[in-house]
Write a structure and sequence with these properties.
The structure holds 2 protein chains of 2 kinds.
Chain A lengths: L15 H12 L5 H8 L3 H9 L35 H17 L5 H11 L17 H17 L4 H9 L2 H6 L13 H10 L14 H11 L2 E2 L21 E2 L9 E2 L8 E2 L5 H16 L2 H15 L6 H17 L4 H9 L2 H8 L11 H11 L13 H24 L31 H13 L12 H11 L7 H12 L6 H12 L4 H12 L1 E3 L2 E3 L9 H12 L8
Antiparallel strand pairs in A: 1-2, 3-4, 5-6
Helix pairs in contact in A: 1-2, 1-3, 4-6, 4-17, 5-6, 9-10, 12-13, 16-18, 18-23, 21-23
Chain B lengths: L10 H5 L8 H4 L3 H6 L3 H4 L2 E7 L9 E2 L11 H4 L22 E2 L4 H8 L3 E8 L7 H10 L22 H9 L16 E4 L17 E4 L22 H31 L11 H14 L6 E6 L8 H25 L6 E7 L19 E6 L8 E3 L22 E2 H12 L4 H7 L43 E2 L2 E2 L5 E2 L2 E2 L18 E2 L24 E2 L5 H14 L16 E3 L6 E7 L8 E6 L4 E2 L12 E7 L6 E8 L4 E8 L1
Parallel strand pairs in B: 1-7, 1-8, 4-10, 4-11, 5-6, 5-7
Antiparallel strand pairs in B: 2-3, 4-9, 8-9, 12-13, 14-15, 16-17, 18-19, 19-22, 20-21, 20-23, 23-24
Helix pairs in contact in B: 6-11, 8-13, 9-10, 10-11
The chains are: A mainly alpha, B alpha/beta.
């Protein structure tokens, strides 16, 4: 058995099934057998490039829709101020449901990277009060926010660019109150979290503070006047030049035009106050450059990347080796997040997490990953949403699946309301030491986590979610498309376990699952049942199939339920 | 004292936390355990912590009249959009609170102040206060401060994240606790309501969790757990790593405690008090019911969110004050009606206060000093104010009360006073829980005559008196049927068959009865490791507790069928209604096969028999349904005791 290495040397040679599955699980929301097979023949460099250069999700849906107003412009409400907008809470969920659907069908690394950015440039739409003047527009600005996250993930954006664009993001302006921060009476909320959570972090690895309380005040002064456009969304003429997404404005009337003097933590930097809108953006640039000039900022991002993609625990050895290398890489390439992430995902160290003593699969999956891994691997499609959806199509996807299942049932019970973390620090699994990812796993969340498979397989939930895992269709897919001889119990198990589980199972462990599948009967019995159902040989003798799926479906249901409620599936 | 010293007696268990394979008795053979077990009165005490997440604006919670006086830091001028008109403030009729006035929505808390049920520590902080929500919360939960004190960590290889004071206290008091129920502690040591994640406050480096998380309400809690997950057998330990172990462990602990919490919850009741629909109220209602149902969980952590009022604070903060005030009052009222108020102490905290000077968004930014509230029975706590006030003329350059020039009490003084004086923590336990602080100062919050630690008779062998067996839940049964021998009745006690001491007394698990002719004493006084117990309690099938627990653990480990209670644990099911009642109660049950000499009796909270007329049960056949008149009985907490040759069970009845 090899051991983990801290070497950032880039891995060479083709990945093979196990490492390709490991890479895909860590970097993409869409996890399928053919995708693993495709990546398995590539080197790490080829596979990583492939993951970051793949075309958009297919099928891709461009908008969250509303079945209640289907007769009005086909349910479109995002880009039309005149469309009825009741049910603000549901609308915010539909926007995230739109994002979730695209994430599930995205074979690239984009959506998972967008979610990673969300974990540290945090907003929450849950309970976010619509400020007066922006009433009912939070749902629409949330759409802009998620579009921005996707753009940042998809365009090799520098983290500096992210920080600037987030500052002008309407949802962020509302969430951390910067919209109402004015000269002489600044609101420090955004300035504080920009420093503490979004960029440099509170203190360095030696416990030294990275900034002072006074620095927060000075940063808040720089940020005064960046506020929301308070007219209707479609009449907002302020588009970001790069993203073409509507954004907030620079209001010179409420901007503090005095000079801002920072502490020695920032080398006593003075940002000269400006009075014009252009000047305000120059001040913002200077503030961001000042923060990103600090090595602590690069290290903080390097730790966030490592915790999300490699291991939630950072030992002193990793801090001095991998984190140092990664933060140097970030600084050398002007904080190009994707470039540095590729560097990390190609490293020998990353793959040693899969083959080393840790055994691979050493991060507890987020609730969203549990669901997307189960759905994508077993070919479970979301309720259909064709090009011209009917009202009932829209209802099934947005109201039944998204609101009733993804949020009100699954999200509530697993502790992950998508884009609705409990605080501005984000989801505890990504920051709360020392438990980190273990935060996902505890008393109240366990039943639902183990239930993720049977909800889809057994379809017993009270509110129909209009989707399922059809285990027989999946077996046919393996047999007819993937060329797996599913009449052979071991071949069927291999096609699932070798992909879905990061761990190598002991013989006893594998037999436990196998016996659940076989119902403690013989492998020959399964071979014969499959042959009697679908044609083929029973113990060497051809049989005439009767097409009775009751011969095989209960076995397959039991297998998929067992696999999805195995402890191994909880890990990636 | 170093953390690792506490574990030298229990280290083997830490490596094998799933099965009690070292045997039940050996798990508790450490003399320190017995020495650190608090006496009866402390054993039945609970601490309920309310975390006000987001930093409560203490300066608009209790408001001092001098804020309205002139000067540069005039309250009305500094908070033009946030101030509360002086005429709207509430004043307590209790002169102990003369100095302060209350937010207009704190009427219910003011009522509690009137009755002497509240101690307010006005100005609480710590050196170099952090104004980061997350750093400050970590400090509050781990006993640290911002002055650069190195917080010791048992695992030197890990990061500097320390262990929570609640978890450390619990581990110290319950040394040998290994994440599985036992006769000493059938419940999880702590329960964290609402949150889906473990609080850092309960965190220790022990592999098991000191606390179980549960939702706001118990309904449906863990109900499906036993049906889920496949057996966690046959892992290759070398290749699967610590996360699989963690998942296995949490599954098992959750199953074990899930059953117990369900059982306790179902057995418990609330009084008729209306908690309203507040989220905090719902959490507290669940706590009250668990306590009523016999939970021995020491610390319940509840939480209330929404206090980060950077913008448009006035109305939002007012709603929060209403929720806090009404929820706490309902909880206290409920406990009082059920006769449990003297067993519960409530303490609030928030990560920091807010700036005195309001911001431009009609809100307040992060500040420093803030008050803490302690609620309890007026005979148990000192009502009134503790410590200095927050002087708002002493502000820092940021506009927050300056903790360098203001006087304040350290939050660790508050928590250590509560752990010591309310929960009976030894000095060594306090030193452990607050090792970053050094020597906590004891505040005069808890009445000294209810101070458990150091009170004569509590821990000192030979000085114990018969009060120690008040409320012993399992009385003596002799050959003639039922006898009340062994139950103390307000000081006069019939001689127990074995000496009962603070050392060798234990509660029994549900379903157990004492062996005929013995009392319930299970462990010898000397508590020497390896000594056989003086006598064993056993269940209907003759399993001792030790055997039965071992069977339970085996089942947990292999079959995940814990919710299917084995026949050995079958209990009598009694229906009582109405409950609470004021005039009569219907009691009905099915007589189990072979049951003889069934009696029903009414006991008061001290175990004394209260005279009630009970119809002749033997003439009623196998389905008993009787009506008991209780209109002559004073209001309070009582027990209906069912006693037969084979079984004794008590059921709580509240008379109002």
């Amino acid at each position: 058995m090899s051991v983990t290495t801290t070497s950032m040397a880039q891995r060479t040679g083709v990945l093979g099934i196990k490492l390709a599955a490991f890479l895909l699980k860590r970097s993409s929301f869409r996890f399928t057998k053919p995708r693993v097979d495709e990546l398995s023949t590539m080197t790490a460099a080829q596979a990583v490039n492939n993951l970051f250069n793949t075309s958009p999700p297919s099928p891709y849906i461009p908008r969250p829709l509303d079945y209640n107003i289907h007769s009005y412009n086909g349910g479109e409400w995002i880009d039309d101020d005149d469309a009825p907008t009741s049910n603000e809470t549901n609308r915010r969920q539909w926007v995230t449901g739109w994002w979730f659907r695209n994430a599930l069908y995205d074979p690239s690394a984009t959506h998972k990277l967008a979610f990673f950015i969300h974990t540290f440039f945090t907003i929450s739409h849950v309970g976010l009060a619509p400020p007066s003047g922006l009433n009912t527009h939070v749902a629409r600005s949330l759409y802009d926010h998620l579009t921005l996250l996707n753009w940042l993930a998809d365009n090799n954006a520098s983290l500096k660019t992210m920080a600037k664009k987030m500052t002008l993001d309407t949802t962020m302006l509302c969430y951390l109150n910067n919209r109402s921060s004015i000269a002489g009476d600044e609101n420090e909320n955004y300035a504080r979290e920009l420093l503490e959570l979004f960029t440099i972090g509170r203190s360095d690895q030696n416990g030294e503070d990275n900034y002072t309380e006074e620095d927060i005040t000075q940063a808040a002064r720089v940020l005064t006047g960046f506020t929301t456009y308070n007219g209707g969304r479609t009449s907002n003429p302020n588009f970001d030049d790069d993203t073409d997404i509507r954004r907030g404005i620079a209001d010179t009337g409420t901007h503090d035009s005095g000079n801002k003097t920072f502490s020695d933590k920032f080398d006593d930097t003075i940002i000269v106050g400006k009075t014009t809108a252009t000047g305000m953006f120059e001040e913002l640039d200077e503030l961001i450059e000042m923060i990103f000039a600090q090595e602590a900022t690069a290290r903080n991002y390097a730790r966030k990347m490592y915790r999300f993609y490699v291991d939630p625990v950072i030992s002193p050895a990793i801090e001095s080796s991998v984190i140092t290398a990664l933060s140097n890489h970030l600084m050398n390439y002007d904080y190009d997040l994707v470039r540095s992430l590729k560097y990390l995902l190609r490293s020998q160290h990353f793959y040693s997490m899969c083959t080393g003593v840790e055994g691979g699969g050493n991060i507890i999956k987020s609730p969203i990953e549990l669901m997307t891994d189960a759905m994508s691997f077993f070919n479970s499609d979301l309720p259909p949403l064709p090009n011209s959806p009917s009202a009932i199509d829209i209802e099934h996807h947005f109201d039944d699946f998204v609101t009733h299942h993804l949020f009100n049932r699954y999200g509530q019970n697993t502790g992950l309301l998508l884009f609705g973390p409990p605080s501005v620090a984000g989801y505890p699994a990504y920051y709360q030491e020392p438990l980190m990812d273990k935060n996902w796993y505890g008393g109240p969340t366990i039943p639902t986590r183990y239930d993720v498979g049977s909800v889809f397989v057994k379809r017993y939930v009270s509110n129909n979610i209009h989707t399922s895992i059809d285990t027989l269709a999946f077996a046919h897919y393996l047999n007819d498309v993937e060329g797996v001889d599913v009449s052979n119990a071991d071949a069927l198990l291999d096609a699932i376990l070798n992909y879905l589980f990061s761990q190598t199972l002991t013989t006893d462990r594998r037999d436990l699952i196998k016996n659940i599948f076989l119902d403690d009967l013989s492998e020959t019995n399964w071979e014969c049942e499959w042959a009697l159902y679908n044609g083929g040989n029973c113990n060497g003798t051809p049989v005439t199939p009767d097409g009775d799926e009751n011969r095989v479906r209960p076995h397959l249901d039991a297998l998929v339920c067992a696999v999805l409620s195995a402890q191994e599936f909880q890990l990636k | 004292m170093k953390r690792r010293d506490f574990f030298k007696h229990t280290a083997p268990l830490m490596t094998a936390p799933i099965f009690l394979n070292t045997g039940f008795v050996r798990a508790f053979n450490s003399p320190e355990l017995f020495n650190s077990l608090a006496c009866d009165s402390v054993r039945e005490r609970f601490l309920i912590v309310i975390q006000l997440k987001g930093a409560n604006d203490g300066l608009n919670t209790i408001i001092r009249p001098e804020y309205y006086n002139g000067g540069t830091n005039h309250y009305l001028q500094q908070r033009p959009d946030l101030y509360i008109d002086e005429s709207e403030l509430l004043t307590s009729s209790n002169t102990d609170f003369n100095e302060i006035k209350f937010h207009p929505n704190l009427g219910k808390i003011k009522e509690l102040c009137d009755k002497g049920c509240v101690n307010i520590i006005q100005s609480v902080g710590y050196p170099s206060m952090s104004r980061s929500h997350f750093k400050a919360t970590d400090l509050w939960l781990t006993g640290g401060d911002g002055a650069g004190t190195t917080i010791p960590s048992r695992d030197e290889s890990s990061s500097s994240i320390s262990e929570g004071w609640m978890g450390l206290y619990l581990e110290h008091i319950f040394q040998g606790y290994n994440g599985t129920p036992n006769a000493f502690m059938p419940d999880p040591l702590g329960i964290h309501l609402k949150s889906k994640s473990q609080s850092l406050g309960f965190h220790t480096h022990g592999e098991h969790l000191a606390a179980i998380n549960m939702g706001t309400k118990k309904n449906g809690f863990y109900a499906l757990l036993s049906e889920q997950g496949i057996s966690s057998e046959f892992f290759d330990e070398a290749s699967c790593g610590d996360k699989v172990d963690y998942i296995k462990l949490i599954d098992q602990e959750t199953q074990v405690y899930g059953e117990r919490i369900n059982q306790v919850f179902d057995r418990g009741n609330n009084s008729t008090v209306d908690y309203g629909t507040h989220d905090l109220g719902t959490q507290l209602k669940t706590v009250a019911r668990l306590v009523n149902g016999g939970s021995k969980t020491k610390i319940f952590l509840t939480e209330m969110t929404g206090f980060d009022t950077h913008a448009y604070q006035l109305n939002r903060h007012g709603e929060l004050m209403t929720q806090l005030s009404e929820s706490v009052h309902a909880f206290m009222d409920d406990l009082d009606k059920m006769g449990m108020l003297d067993k519960c102490l409530v303490v609030t905290f928030s990560e920091f206060g807010r700036k005195f000077i309001g911001n431009g968004s009609f809100g307040t930014d992060h500040g420093t000093l803030a008050p803490m509230f302690v609620f309890g029975h007026p005979e148990k706590i000192n009502g009134g104010l503790t410590g200095p006030k927050i002087d708002v003329t002493l502000l820092d350059t940021q506009g927050a009360p300056n903790e360098l020039t203001n006087d304040y009490k350290d939050y660790r003084d508050v928590f250590s006073s509560i752990l010591g004086q309310w929960l009976g923590a030894e000095q060594s336990a306090l030193n452990t829980a607050f090792s970053a602080y050094g020597d906590p100062q004891t505040l005069n919050i808890i009445k000294t005559d209810s101070n458990a630690w150091g009170t004569a008779g509590c821990y000192v062998p030979g000085q114990h008196d018969n009060e120690h067996i008040v409320n012993v839940s399992i009385p003596t049964v002799d050959d003639s049927g039922y006898s009340s021998a062994g139950i103390s009745t307000g000081g006069t006690t019939i001689e127990p068959l074995h000496e009962i001491t603070a050392c060798n007394y234990v509660d029994l698990l549900p379903g157990f009865v004492a062996e005929c002719g013995t009392n319930v004493i299970v462990y010898p006084f000397a508590c020497t490791p390896g000594d056989p117990p003086a006598a064993l309690a056993m269940d209907d099938s003759g399993n001792t507790e030790e055997q039965a627990i071992y069977v339970r653990q085996q089942q947990v480990g292999t079959e995940s069928q814990l919710l299917e209670i084995t026949p050995n644990f079958e209990r009598i099911k009694i229906k009582m209604y109405p409950n609470p009642t004021s005039d009569f109660v219907h009691v009905s049950f099915n007589v189990r096969e072979g049951e003889q000499n069934i009696r029903l009796e009414l006991l008061d909270a001290k175990g004394s028999i209260v005279p009630v007329k009970v119809p002749d049960l033997s003439s009623q056949g196998s389905e008993i349904n009787v009506k008991l008149e209780v209109s002559h009985v004073p209001a309070g907490l009582y027990y209906i005791r069912y006693a037969s040759r084979a079984l004794i069970e008590t059921f709580k009845l509240v008379i109002i």
